[in-house]
């Protein structure tokens, strides 16, 4: 492409079309531009347009297109063609900096981005003049130009903040320092001087302060990796000026905006960061300056207002103090009683106040409020920073700080008592203060786990929290109610049980509160209390203790779901689930009404599922209703099917993807409740479950496998007789699963069920293929997970079909296959099998191979007999995995392994672990001893001589133990 | 894996202050002036000559003027501030001064010339080169055997400066057989001051890499160094420790030569010395030894290094903390038996303290200790580590402003989780991490700019705080619309 007017014209036309809202016009234009971007001069045409076009939109559009072009093409990838010709590259680098500097801000930003992309590739080696060019501009005196340079420098250097140290990186930094550090320092000094010369010129000050912010940012980048010699030598200049900037104020720079941070705030905030950087990394060198900064920052905090625009500055500043006060050698800066008092009084307390913005969020944006307050997404908030400072100070001064705050808490409570309706915020602050003072460590699951022993939490609860919650009017002072409920929730492990029992009816009562935050907190608190552990891994609060409240609890919970704003409130739904699980059979009388309400809810939300957690707990609640009811009365399953199948059909027909995995799980649960032959209503569904489209969605796989397993368990013979033509499809599903590293274990679940339940003759013709498929995976992409599942499967097969059948089928696939699998897979890998049942299956299977497989005794496989026995003894004697999985009552959605939005395993639809060898073998060690005894009786002398010649001493000793325990001996 | 002392070719920081001095100028006078006066009638006769006069006199034949001029030159070169080394070199009188060195009948002139040349050689590399290119090496070496002690001492000093310039001149000296006459000067009657100079010069002959000093030379010098290390003079001990620290700063076979001398117990003893000047090189040497093989590290452990380290980890000087932590990190990189000794000797409490409140440089090394520990330690040892309270300060350092450190901590956390998995205590560790505000920090790191850091953080979150998997292969759909169950057979060989 030539640099001609005609081409400029064409390009302008196409650029214009790319802005068209109609895709029929826009898309072809975009396509065209892509097709010509490989031509020489294309980038130069864009640069010309963005400089000279008459239309501003085209300028902007050209600059964006240029930046994206650079982003896509500048990097030269090895073995790929260079997408920009060399002369264009040179021309771009020669022109872009002046062009950027002379452009209006909108375009300047795009070009500055482009420069940093180019710089990332070419700087410094292939763009040696860039630095000099930039530094020269510092002399220009034109601060619009200077700011452009600084912005570019910032985008080039900011990567020093996160890249790993390397010779290459440090060479670059050194080069930059050599060329840039001194001019930057001079610019810094000059800018500060200009600030005082222009102290009365608002517009000049704005530009100058923008420069100072960028300079401060550059300082941060350049000092990040290590303390450069230059900056160490010039620390005095930088730190003295930073320090005085921190204390500077100028009315002209104050903004009226309450929300957006102004230049002054941004600068001070960056200086706090710079000081924190030095304090953390270069403590030795920075020590002389640190006390000054502590004082300045603390004064800054004392004088900064409550407006939102100061939030970042304040939280940065407080975090600086928090990080310094924990350091032993700065302890002295804080230990004076007056200092401590003043920090508490002037820094911490004011920043804990409930502000107008908080109040607004509490009322109008409760979800966000709850997220911040309850789930701790409050990292940058003032309250959080203040809370961190309290924790930091408590490290050395727990006693004095607690003392100071106790005084405060008392006086705030007194203020409140004088006139609650006016002074309720004082009580809010008091509660927050107590909370932050008392909590030393916290988790979502357990609330506070370590508390300050100097605070009497129970006393505070009885005297100041309970009265609020006992008040007859649940809607009065909603913030204080929420505070009180939260207090119970987080200190649940510190407050004695009898107090919790007092609190429960109060919480149930507050489920009726109109405020979303209040009834949500009440539901959440109840749910957390119900999940607390008592002795023996049971719940702390028992069903018996809850008996008087069952009706009111269920009524209020379901009523809360009808309150405005809470129709899909996940906290309430979770509380419903937890209540069911805790109360068990005492909910049965209410089930008819409950299940009606749940199915209605299900029907309503299935139109547009939007709250995954809510939905999850809803299905859990449905499962619990089924289980609890059917446990007492198995016949009731029919009425559940009646109530649910209609909705389920609708969900399946409308393909509500979020709900389908849940539906399969509930169906599995229902199917398993049937004691007799599989109902025909289910059988009709069977072919549909094999449809590939269902299996393409990963989220469906686990529940579908589970459902097919239920089909096989209850109806294997029906499938064999009535749906034999579907067996290849069923095995096809197995093949699909086994092909995937992620899902192969699911494939094995299915296969195990097929082998265990299907009549042998119905799968006879496929058996060989099954093994070939498994061997293929084993050969091409084996993983530990696959091997573990494979070992369990072949041993299960051995148990079901006999060891000889296993050997025969292996060797029919390939001669000596059986020996190879024994030697290369079973013997070396068997120790990896985990899980009680899995280990047992393997033990019994291997015992069969050792004692019921003649070729093991009289062919070349004989040499593997001892190693196999040794491996089996190893499996027995491995340290047992004795962790007991959590009882389902305590399971949380976050704990469920494999939880993801696509598939959520329902804890309460969970099936019991199935032990296919349960009845057959009780103790596998004794079983081994007995089987060996039997074998040795059949061929006297053989077993003993093999053992005595090759079994290692330790294994032999274990074996003798088994024989003794079984009271048998070998012949 | 053990990490060698990192060779930083690029340094942003100021040069380190606690390194041994490479070259020294002789400016301390009075003792020497008196020595000198033994060969002279008038002790303090200060004469100022112009540069032209000096050139003239040096090149002339009048021994008296030669002496005066040389002395004047030496005085200029010995003044406290800004010695005019360049100017003197430009006068072109160095070859002549070298010639004076061989005037065995004029001891005073020999001495003055030696002193002047010493101070010229004490400057930059260029300055040293001027002396060497003037032919000074062989003459100085022969002056080592001068009957006048003050002359041979000055020769020792001059040669020290030459050796200190770098590996090239160091080896030139060694090849010119500097070692035998130098070692011959060491005897029980050698005055302490002289012995200091000899030790310092010997240390420079051991110093510098690329290449290392020849092995023969090392074998020659080492026994004498070991003796010197037993001396009671602090400076002699210090410089001989520096020498050993250079010899150990290399490959394992070089470390082995030092270990074989049996000097490690003495080094450990000196490491425990309260004087930082002595402790620094001793710690440096031991730190180098434990970068070696497991056996070499064991030798250092057997010499008692673990008993001394706790105090050094708690030292007030950040560089000592850092060096001690670095040493410990290499011991922690050893087999689990060595890790066990580290535990048994009570190193965990000071380590945790250091992580918690040490200087940042030292904290970084302490993080490495923990990282290495969790790479090689047994599950039981990891439990011990967690019990020592390491987790809190370690997780706190996730907010450090250093990507590498963060990454190492994340790797360490992964290691700990793997151990926890083996014990079936994953959930306990999850809670502990959350309780210590670690979860929040790790979650935050998922937004880190550095891709390795965010991936490591993401990995931990996914693996232990949520859990997900990926897929791989695919089958086909048959005519009935269901999956086809069919396999082609291949040969299997596992």
Automatic annotation (TrEMBL), chain A:
Compartmental location: Cytoplasm; Nucleus
PANTHER family for this protein: EXPORTIN-2 (PTHR10997:SF8), IMPORTIN-7, 8, 11 (PTHR10997)
One GO CC annotation: nuclear envelope
Domain of life: Eukaryota
Lineage summary: Eukaryota, Metazoa, Chordata, Craniata, Vertebrata
One GO-annotated biological process of the protein: protein export from nucleus
Native organism: Smithornis capensis
Full protein name: Exportin-2
Keywords, sorted A to Z: Cytoplasm, Nucleus, Protein transport, Transport
Residues of the Importin N-terminal domain: 29-102
Family statement drawn from the similarity comment of this UniProt entry: Belongs to the XPO2/CSE1 family.
GO molecular function, one term: small GTPase binding
Main location: cytoplasm
From TrEMBL, chain B:
A Pfam short name: IBB
ARM repeats (start-end): 92-135, 135-163, 304-332
Keywords: Protein transport, Repeat, Transport
Positions in coiled-coil regions: none
Signal peptide residues on this chain, from the entry's feature table: none
GO biological process: protein import into nucleus
Cellular component terms (Gene Ontology): cytoplasm; nucleus
Gene3D superfamilies, alphabetized: Importin-alpha, importin-beta-binding domain, Leucine-rich Repeat Variant
SUPFAM superfamilies, per the entry: ARM repeat
UniProt domain IBB: residue ranges: 1-34
GO terms for MF: nuclear import signal receptor activity
Listed SMART domains: ARM
InterPro entries listed in its UniProt record: ARM-like, ARM-type_fold, Arm_3, Armadillo, Importin-a_IBB, Importin-a_IBB_sf, Importin_alpha
Entry's family note: Belongs to the importin alpha family.
Entry protein name: IMA5 protein
Lineage: Eukaryota, Metazoa, Chordata, Craniata, Vertebrata
